[in-house]
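Backbone-to-sequence.
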């Protein structure tokens, strides 16, 4: 193999990764799997896909070694192949934010006016939580909370929040978090809490970013 053949073969392999990342739905699937393992049926529902289309996208991601799968009876469950896949998606997301003005415009339209307060960053939340000065609220679905959450966080899924407000202390600030910097669940949770007289802000990032920083994680109910 001469130099040209080597380079052509090498970059063809790298291009498999680029091809796997080349559709919005496959990026969304990686983002969802960053929360934890999911069946193809659950992924399809959350990504707004048919099961057949979700399976097709997962085959491409699997072919590029970005996701792994396991079978449990009639169901197949998917997960990110390793932490490097999440770092790749996170880097792509950060690059898009820094280079594409359209992303910043979308973010501002949804996130900059929802509460009139700056979001809480990870170091600040860790300091506040360690001192017992805030209630940390996880508004993701229960299965995601059980798969891993910020230590001490209270689990109240967004759709249950209004009827479970009595479980939250009124005398303490609340910081709500969900799946990441572009997850709207925490935005909606803060709107509900503030409407009912609570002092609430959202975490600037989400649980995957907390975990990727090597911060403590709890698993289970």
């Amino acid at each position: 193999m001469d130099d040209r053949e080597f380079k052509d073969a090498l970059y063809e392999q790298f291009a498999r990764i680029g091809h796997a990342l080349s559709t919005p739905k496959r990026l969304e699937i990686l983002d969802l799997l960053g929360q934890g393992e999911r069946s193809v049926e659950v992924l399809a529902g959350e990504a707004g896909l048919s099961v057949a289309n979700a399976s097709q996208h997962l085959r491409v991601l699997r072919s590029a070694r970005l996701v792994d799968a396991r079978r449990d009876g009639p169901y197949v469950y998917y997960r990110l192949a390793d932490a490097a896949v999440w770092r790749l998606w996170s880097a792509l997301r950060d690059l898009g934010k820094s280079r594409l003005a359209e992303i910043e415009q979308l973010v501002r339209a949804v996130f900059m006016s929802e509460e009139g307060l700056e979001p809480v960053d990870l170091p600040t939340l860790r300091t506040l939580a360690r001192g017992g000065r805030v209630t940390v609220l996880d508004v993701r679905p229960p299965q995601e909370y059980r798969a891993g959450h910020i230590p001490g966080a209270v689990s109240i899924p967004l759709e249950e929040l209004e009827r479970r407000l009595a479980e939250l202390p009124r005398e303490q600030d609340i910081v709500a978090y969900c799946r990441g910097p572009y997850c709207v669940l925490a935005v909606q949770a803060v709107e509900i809490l503030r409407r009912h007289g609570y002092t609430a802000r959202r975490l600037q990032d989400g649980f995957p970013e907390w975990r990727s920083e090597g911060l403590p994680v709890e698993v289970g109910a």
